[in-house]
Amino acid sequence: TYGGFYCRSFNNSFITQVRDAWFSDEFRVQKKLGLVLEKQEIHFPDELTCAICFESYSRDDRSCGKCGHPFCNDCWTNYIRNYIREGTGPLMIRCPEPSCRAALHQELFDKIATEEQMDRFLSYLIKSFVENQRTIKWCPANGCEFAIDLLDGVNSCDVSCLCSYNFCWNCKEEAHRPMGCDIITKWNENINPDTRTMSRIMMCSKPCTKCKRPIEMSFGCMHMKCRPPCNFEFCWICLQRWDGHRNFYGCNRYGEVTAEREKSKESRKKYLHCCDRWEAHGISRRKAVKDLENLKSQQIKKLCDIQQLSC
């Protein structure tokens, strides 16, 4: 129990660091953490006033830590509940006496805390332990509560959880070997619905030269006029001002601008092509994983029925 206090004060560091700090100055560490190794023998009367609620309680209805400060059991329970309600503070409950820094020992916690409080506090301890380890991470899959321990000597960054989810250890995205994490990050930034919608708009439209608003060509005329309040008139092919064009169906300034725009259009077509297939394969993969889980459940049930076991 006190070993747990000690390790948490060092953010669950390596055992060598914890051991070295302890043996270098044991008493300093005890004082810093508020560890009381021997219970203070203090004789109280049968009736005692609780220093929190100021009600009188009998000996059986009050408790005290090893520091010797007594409080009624109801106030102890409320104190513990309020302390761990949010789970954002340090995972070391101390005596409620303002002048005391003694840590609440495990025996008193087990006696006072409710089952719900104990379960919640335990989940905080586990979360704190995992998040302070360099070789342990939570599985990022939705609804998964497993943590993965990276074994020594493993060169691959792709890890597999018991829930069948495979992810990259470094960026916690889906396993993407041989692509690097930076490429995956850029890809995810470009596959959001807004980006894809804008790419589809740009496939069949061009920006107004003046206000940059996308304009779609509805008829065969190359003479474009932007909507109010812009009202800018330009050529669909070269995007230059309409002044100087002699007819409505030809442009004498065809050149590098048009070639560059066609190149950009082909690039967007390729991007949308990849996005559509990426989404289709993702749907197929998720369905395959779901089918695999259903198959596992069915097979396990059949094996249990054969072996006459309870599943």
Automatic annotation (TrEMBL):
Which UniProt keywords are listed?
Metal-binding, Repeat, Transferase, Ubl conjugation pathway, Zinc, Zinc-finger
| Gene3D superfamilies, per database record | 1.20.120.1750, Zinc/RING finger domain, C3HC4 (zinc finger)
Pathway membership, UniProt: Protein modification; protein ubiquitination
> Record keywords: Zinc included?
yes
* UniProt cofactor(s): Zn(2+)
Q: Provide the GO biological process annotations.
A: protein ubiquitination
Record CDD domains: BRcat_RBR_ANKIB1
| RING-type domain residues | 46-255, 50-96
Write the Enzyme Commission number(s) for this entry: 2.3.2.31
Top EC class for this record: transferase
Keyword Kinase set for record: no
**Molecular function GO labels:** ubiquitin protein ligase activity; zinc ion binding
Its function, per the record, reads: Might act as an E3 ubiquitin-protein ligase, or as part of E3 complex, which accepts ubiquitin from specific E2 ubiquitin-conjugating enzymes and then transfers it to substrates.
According to its UniProt record, which protein family does this protein belong to?
A: Belongs to the RBR family. Ariadne subfamily.
The record's annotation in PANTHER family points to: RBR FAMILY RING FINGER AND IBR DOMAIN-CONTAINING
Q: What is this protein called?
A: RBR-type E3 ubiquitin transferase
What is the protein's species of origin? Durio zibethinus
